[in-house]
Amino acid sequence: MKKPMIGVLPLYDTDKKSYWMLPDYMNAIEGAGGIPIMLPLTTDTEIIATLANQFDGLVPVHRGT
């Protein structure tokens, strides 16, 4: 059976101008049998459409306040 590919939206650190990811998201997807892939942050609709069609699911990461 093919493992589902799950796109994960990263968090963005405005001070360091860098993407980052909490490992628990990636570990949970792997633990559930999926393949987690961190996505780029972009507003380019062509890139978004292309990526959306490649994945079996998407996870928006939320950093609590």
Describe the structure.
The strands form two sheets. Strands 4-1-5 form a three-stranded parallel beta sheet, covered by helices on one side. The chain has two helices and five strands, in the order βββαβαβ. The chain has helices at residues 23-31, 45-52, and strands spanning 5-9, 11-13, 18-20, 35-38, 57-60. The longest helix has 9 residues, at 23-31. It starts with a strand and ends in a 5-residue tail after the last strand. It is α/β, with parallel strands linked by helices and 65 residues long. The relative contact order is 0.33. A hairpin with a 4-residue loop joins strand 2 (11-13) and strand 3. Helices cover 26% and strands 29% of the residues. The protein is flat.
Note the topology.
Blueprint (H helix, E strand, L loop, with lengths): L4 E5 L1 E3 L4 E3 L2 H9 L3 E4 L6 H8 L4 E4 L5
Largest sheet: 3 strands, parallel
Mean pLDDT across every amino acid position: 89
Order of helices and strands: EEEHEHE
Structural class determined from secondary elements: alpha/beta
Q: Please report which band the strand proportion falls in: under 5%, 5-15%, 15-25%, 25-35%, 35-45% or over 45%.
A: 25-35%
Distance between the termini: 39 Å
Whole-angstrom Rg: 13 Å
Going across the major beta sheet, what is the strand order?
4-1-5
Helix proportion range: 25-40%
Number of strands: 5
Count of individual helical segments = 2
| Low confidence ranges | none
Gross morphology: flat
